[in-house]
Amino acid sequence: LTGDSIYDKTRYYSLKNTFAISLLEGFNKWAKSGLKAFIASELRHFTLPNTTGSTSYNEHNLSIGAQLSKAQGKTFHYNATAETWLTGEDAGQLKLDASADLNFKLFGDTLSLTANGFFHRLNPTFYYRHYHSRHAWWDNNSMSKMLHTRLQGILHYQKTRTTLRIGIDEINNYAYFASSYTVNNGNRVNHAITVNQYGGAINLITVALSQDFTLGPLNWESVITYQKSNNKTVVPVPDFNIYSNLYIKFKIARVLSCDFGADVRYFTKYFAPDYNPGLGQYTVQTNTATDGTDSRIGIGNYPVANIYANFHLKHTRFFIMMSHVNAGTGKKNYFFTPHYPLNQRILRFGLSWNFFN
Predict the structure, then answer these.
(1) pLDDT tens across 240-273, in order?
(2) Cβ neighbours, 10 Å, residue 154
(3) How many Cβ atoms sit within 10 Å of the Cβ of residue 276?
(4) pTM score above 0.70
(5) How far apart are CA 308 and CA 303, in angstroms?
(6) pLDDT tens digits, residue range 177-228?
(7) What one-character DSSP code corresponds to residue 31?
(8) 41 pairs with which residues across the strands?
(9) What CA–CA distances, in Å, run from 15 to 18, 20, 42, 88, 196?
């Protein structure tokens, strides 16, 4: 609209119909797997503001797919799904998803080995291709399909309460939101948001170890995750992410369950995605100063700790917690997202009471 008026209203609806034929696993003695075939039709309608009035977009797609699965039994399960798009805006898309798990006894307990992965060739969704607003405007009609491959393995041993997860991702033609501003004499000016597409290959490796311990009333739960991206400019991730929860668990008079403990969260410093309130989306930082230097904001390398007490009596649960109990110590890096500081020390309490019978 003219002047300083803003009309950033977007409307969207989707109508999807799916017809499927499914043969259930075990429907006769020869059917060791479940089998499904389906065809789906989807109509998507978008309305965006324009310089005069509004502009509408219709996208209709037709896809077919199949699924093979085995969920019965205790030892081996699998699930494989394939879907491809024949006509419409998303013609040429392909989704291949597969997972399998093997469970067997080891030293008196169950060891589970899970493998999953996928290959997706997907068209960037509508709002990566078209968006109109007062402060952001783009029509990208020549974006390439994104190729995303993931291979992941998970090992879980119930007896030691150990879980190890290893995943490898490769992404080509990655589409993402990028935000920028210019730092001039300490002020952030010339804010902008764009859609970028990186034409090369991005590789990401993830290794996560989860370990729980119990010794009498003492419990310790921890997760440590290592991630490495070969292009941290486009896919920024912290090298390490750690969560640990230490508490004692006991009962009073055999009816009141109590947990007293503390937990902590920590990740190494990295250039975290910024938040854009106009889109309600996280965006990759691409900021520069007037002298051309890198002015991206790094966050992390700061723990956030909480102490708490939980109680459970029949149908009633209540808690008291001091969150961010370590506020005021060390450098004041109270950020999970650039420019949005966390709350400092806060006392919280709550009550949940179920009324029934």
Answers:
(1) 999 999 999 999 998 999 999 999 999 999 999 9
(2) 18
(3) 17
(4) yes
(5) 16
(6) 999 888 888 788 888 999 999 999 999 999 999 999 999 999 999 999 999 9
(7) -
(8) 17, 62
(9) 10, 17, 6, 14, 29
